[in-house]
Amino acid sequence: MASTSTPAKNRPNPAASLIAGAFAGSIEGFVTYPTEFIKTRSQFRSPTATGKPPGPIHILKTTLAKDGLGGLYSGCSALVIGNGLKAGVRFFSYEKFKKALVDQDGKLTGPRSLLAGLGAGMCEAVLAVTPSETIKTKLVNEAMKPNPRFTGLVQGTREIIKMEGIGGIYRGLFPV
Fold first, then answer.
1. Bridge partners, 4 (sequence order)
2. In this predicted structure, what is the pLDDT of residue 60?
3. Is the pTM of this model over 0.90?
4. Alpha-carbon distance 45 to 67, whole Å?
5. Which of 37, 56, 104, 141 is most deeply buried (CB count within 10 A of its CB)?
6. Rounded to whole angstroms, how far apart are CA atoms 20 and 91?
7. Is the dihedral of CA 45, 79, 131, 115 positive or negative?
8. Euclidean distance between CA atoms 93 and 161, whole angstroms
């Protein structure tokens, strides 16, 4: 079985991993957000006069005509913060799991590395993915309404928790 060893002085600082992951995830979220926006909008759209739901090009054209380029970034803060949080949690927890799983020689075997990745993915799902995706989806859906209740990420999150409790941002974590 192959194992890897990283001298202690070359191991990344967990805080540096958290910051690097958060920064990278935030940039990725901002750059890719318009496609996420169109995908999410298409999930909420009702059929057009032809009886078919509008496609991505129709959603893009309609959004640009109605709201301009900024319209494609409606709800973006939720995804940017969520992606930053997800990547930060993943990088940080992976480093912590790796540190806990090294053998007595300071080496991390393939199976143990797999376990570290599994643990990091579970932490990411519970602490970041579910709440950020739930909030983002609710913000995008609410923005389509004539009188949206949510004016932004912080206010929207507070309203969701006020109306539905903390479980409102964890909707979908467990099967119903």
1. 108
2. 93
3. no
4. 17
5. 37
6. 8
7. positive
8. 26
List the beta bridge partners of residue 3. Answer: 109
pLDDT, position 32: 93
Furthest-apart CA pair in the chain: how many Å? 68
Q: What is the pLDDT of residues 7-52, one digit of tens each?
A: 555 666 878 888 999 999 999 999 999 998 998 888 876 666 567 7
Radius of gyration over alpha carbons of the chain, in Å? 20
Residue 136 CB neighbours (<10 A) = 26
If DSSP codes are grouped into helix, strand and coil, which group holds residue 41? helix
Rounded CA separation 21/2 (Å): 27
Whether the pLDDT of residue 75 is over 80: the answer is no
Residue 75, both tokens? 């709800």
Measured between alpha carbons, how far is residue 162 from residues 116, 166, 167 in Å? Answer: 36, 8, 10
